[in-house]
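Quick log. Single chain, no ligands specified.
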Amino acid sequence: MTEERSSREDLGTRLRDARKYCGFSQEEVARHLSVSRSAVSLMESGSRSVNAMELGRLARLYQRSMESLTGTVSSESGSESVGLLARATAELSERDRQEVLRFAEFLRSRSSTSD
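-> predicted structure:
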């Protein structure tokens, strides 16, 4: 496998994961980009290149940086991961948000005791 093909496949995987995380169908993404659903499928499989304009539109749609989609920085780093967590919990009930907060406190205490 060529390096270019491997890079396209990695990008495709990140695009698919971001789309699914945001809850979009390939059809919805295709309409947003003004391309066919099969074009989105080919992008996600790494069989089709993604141009800079498409990448920018996808980054805005998925509320991610272009760098996180291309893999030049970790999508789980710093404030971006906090933003993703905030968006994921925004529509939870107050009770469920409190449960998420308790779980976060548990994880933090567990990691501080294992150091």
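The chain has two domains: 1-74, 76-115.
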